[in-house]
User: Fold Deoxyribodipyrimidine photo-lyase from Leuconostoc mesenteroides subsp. mesenteroides.
Amino acid sequence: MVSVMWFRRDLRLEDNIALFNALRHSNEILCVFHINPEQVTEKSTVNQSAFFASVLYFKNKLKKQGINLNIMYGDINDCFASLKQKLPDWHDIFFNFDERGFGRNRDQKSVAFFEDKLKVKAHPYIDYNLHGATEVKKDSGAGYKVFTPYFKRWIRQEKPAPVSYVIDKRIKSARLLFPENEQLLETFIDDRFSFIKKDLGSETAKKVLNRFINESLDQYDEERDFPANDSTSHLSRYLRTGEISIRTVWRAIDQSPDSDGKSTFMKELCWRDFYNMIYVMYPNQNVESVNKDFRHVDWINNEQQFEAWRTGQTGFPIVDAAMRQLNATGWMHNRLRMIVASFLTKDLLIDWRWGEAYFHNKLLDYDAASNIGGWQWAASTGTDSVPYFRIFNPTLQSKKFDSNGLFIKKYVPELKNVDNKMIHEPGKLSESEQTRFNVRIGQNYPFPIVDHSYARKRAISIYESSKDVN
Ligand code: FAD
Assistant:
């Protein structure tokens, strides 16, 4: 019996639920990866290039183990119909189901197509999250909208264990049916982003996990908010591609000695499931604010200010350092994501969807549910968000979380000679201080593009009047 294993955001052999089940049920397994031409039009995004770099790495790794990953390109139904023609004795397909967004629609339609038209049995599994979107419910059966009660229930529920795997001739003997697509992945990888090709694959992901557990987990609760310490796990990009499974991460953390760091980290992992669940509950949240009160915020959407934010030229050093970190590495520290998202939506009153779209293109770890969830949290438009009147002061955030300016100096070299205590507000440096610190505000580093205390009042007023519209 020949089965197809359809890989997507699960680029690994080990602890892969769909593959585990395919191996239990099949005599031969054909591995495929499908590329939808409609999804790969924006060639130059970091997000897309990084994902394809991981697929290519996975494909090459499999090849070394004697396994072919067949790359299919084109309309999804045409591709699988062609596969059926080439492989008539194929009767089952295994894959890890996408619970939300574009992927959910694709998977629902694909299941119908496989079963009705190709007479192939579909075997979809939940693999991407510890608990799928419908697994954590209130006693009444309703879903949660607020994180804390969700977390209290989530942490009590038993977590799924990793599944074993043995690679044998059933998967190794599989054929190469689309040789014409063998070089295709390379064309979707933009070489300008050299950082995307570094540190790929499951082996690296496991090293990253182990290093984090050995060096940072115990202190995670105290250290995680300080970007200069760089003490978070950096697992997000591997969880996004599936180069490591969430069950493997959970098991390793769970087996570590108890500490406040460990408890805090487990809670962070819960946010990932929470936002996945919220996206399923609010399928329009990618285009619409979840909170009805804030569906008609009178955004200013100044394009010049957006450009200054995007390029790290706002005159707020912590915002600029954060945006430059994103542009240079494809990753941004969580505290900084909160600061820049608050700054864009509240200080500049730019629509959160602009920021979400920018992150979408730039993040190595882009995950629609977490990104939209994070943006709606910061913009106060989500289910369980920061209240609209609690607005981050970027200068105070900078003083608190980068007190010595070490992170700022790494990404904003114009300010590298500025005194550590004065670096948070370079717009206030006197002429003589500027000379002493070798910086010219307004020339090689900008004045602040907005006055925070004015902007704060303006945002509260605009948010309040948005409520009146409803
Ligand atoms: P760690 O602190 O080591 O956390 C471990 C893991 O827990 C992360 O890898 C992630 O899977 C999960 N996690 C932690 N915090 C969150 C959170 N707030 N929401 C959801 N999951 C979380 N995360 C993404 O994975 N993809 C995104 O596209 C994304 N966009 C974001 C946008 C905004 C505006 C904000 C405020 C947050 C966003 N996050 C996103 C969440 C968080 O910033 C990243 O998961 C984290 O910075 C990744 O670094 P890390 O792996 O070192 O995190």
User: Anything to note?
Assistant: Residues 2-127 form a domain with the Rossmann fold fold (CATH 3.40.50.620). The mean pLDDT is 95. The first strand starts at residue 2 and ends at 7.
